[in-house]
Amino acid sequence: MPESPEMRAFIQSEWNAGRLTRPQAAVMKLLQNPESFLRQHPVINTFDCAAHGQTRAYFRNGGSDALRPGSRLGTARMHTTESFNLESISGANSYGYEFPVHGVYTSPSSGGPLWYTLDATGPAMMLTAKLTGCTFIATAGAGGAVNVTHLQPHQETGLQLNTRMLGAGRAAYGRLKYDFDTRSINIIGARHGGRWQIWAQKLDKNARPTKLLSLKRIWPL
């Protein structure tokens, strides 16, 4: 959704005061050090795509009142941080940054995995829709590539799907790892140092302000 005039005015005032990171700089930080960025900044993800392939995404400031765990204290103490909104390009406005990504489509599990290959070509970031009972799977491809897919349970439960997708040498992050009634899961991949890293960022979906709970690297294993 486009921002209201009031939100645009607020973001401009926060930028002018030096309290917000420009979206383009934030994307660069994410690509340079995915773990550090995703441990510090909650991402409110509404990105989605209609098919596997290269597409565009949009990053904008979400505010400066989000919360993240302390680096030493875990989730016992939360600290103020910035959040960012990650969207399909249809939500673009003048206060964000548009950039290329590999988009991974969410397909029904009854049809079997539709694999997408991440290699050394194309954009350096991979995005998919947030997990809502789904399972995201990654497995090794040829020449250091990674094959990925995002499956939505169909004719089975999310727990059954996640259990069925487990296997040696395969990452299968799904309902065995989260409760979708209370948790929102972002899956974000970045090609860093020539190799793909894929992360699961877990948010409290009901918290206001946005609260980041944990981060787990799901690829490489």
Order of helices and strands: HHHEEEEEEEEEHEEEE
Question: What's the rounded overall pLDDT mean?
Answer: 90
- Which class best fits the helix and strand makeup? alpha+beta
| Count of helical stretches | 4
Describe what this molecule looks like in 3D.
By secondary structure, the protein is α+β, with helices and mostly antiparallel strands. The protein has one domain (5-219). It is 17% helix and 46% strand. It has helices at residues 5-16, 23-32, 34-40, 158-165; strands at residues 43-45, 53-70, 74-88, 96-104, 106-108, 116-118, 125-128, 135-140, 146-152, 170-173, 183-192, 195-204, 211-219. An eight-stranded mixed β-sheet has the order 1-3-2-4-7-11-12-13, covered by helices on one side. β2 and β3 (74-88) form a beta hairpin. α2 crosses α3 (34-40). It is globular.
Task: Name a few traits of the molecule.
five-stranded mixed sheet; globular; alpha+beta; 4 helices; 13 strands
Question: Topology of this protein?
Answer:
Layout: H1 5-16, H2 23-32, H3 34-40, E1 43-45, E2 53-70, E3 74-88, E4 96-104, E5 106-108, E6 116-118, E7 125-128, E8 135-140, E9 146-152, H4 158-165, E10 170-173, E11 183-192, E12 195-204, E13 211-219
Parallel strand pairs: 1-3, 4-7, 5-9
Antiparallel strand pairs: 2-3, 2-4, 6-9, 7-11, 8-9, 8-10, 11-12, 12-13
Quick synopsis:
The protein has 221 residues and is α+β, with helices and mostly antiparallel strands.
